[in-house]
Design goal:
Mean pLDDT: 93
Number of strands: 9
Structural class: alpha/beta
Low-confidence stretches: none
Strand content: 5-15%
Length: 296
Amino acid sequence: MSSIDREIAAQPELWRRSAALAAELDDVLPAPGEQVAVTGCGTSLYIAQAWAALREEAGHGPTDAFPASEPRAARAYDAVVVISRSGTTTEVLRLLDELNAPRTVAITADPATPVAARVDRAVALDFADEESIVQTRFATSALALLRARAGGDLDRAATDAETALAAPLPVQPSDIGQWVFLGRGWTVGLAAEAALKLREAAQAWTEHYPAFEFRHGPISAVSDSTVVWSMGPLDDDMRRDVEVTGARLIEPELDPMASLVLAQRTAVALARERGLDPDRPQHLTRSVILSQGVTR
């Protein structure tokens, strides 16, 4: 069993642990009513996007999510939250240096890193750190923490994740030429993350869209070798439109985070079918560290 297999399997227990931790962080995480920015890179960005939507859906206040490399410095925020597994990502460190905010919070896997040292408060999910370059359990544990903060039921999500770990894969991955992931609301971020897992681990052709945007052009490229994977229930009209194309439609009857677990497993299976190492994809490193001379 590789590192990523163990890390994927650990998620249900870690989500419950993260959800319990949320109740202890009232004085650390942004309070309802505050205007918040949340940022990260890669997987962390997609988790930020999911939380931003969840926080606004819960009525907790305006929440902007954006890449750390593209800050919205002209806006005034009560707090800025950065998500960084490594705590060393160059773009995140630059953002913390440049973005003027009354309060900064980091969610990271390692409290002894430059990012943790540059914020007012750091939340260390060291129990969810990973050996694999490809992120799985740290990112979803961070989302579990933030989702619990927004009032989500993580026990149900964790139970569904246990089901996703035991279930057969919904398709034979090697039969698929194109993967399209769809989401609505907070699951748009999960759709982006699912697509990234297939792309990183298995070099697959993947795309992601807000569900209804898929009908505005991208649907023209699908065929009977395409999987269209919805992270939540599809609208009936959208379902019919996908079925007409001949694409294989996947709508797991699971919590969206558990559907992501199933997508993670699919990515690992496809990587192995292609003779790839899902722990160490080509051209990727645990942290992106740029030369100090590089500017935006």
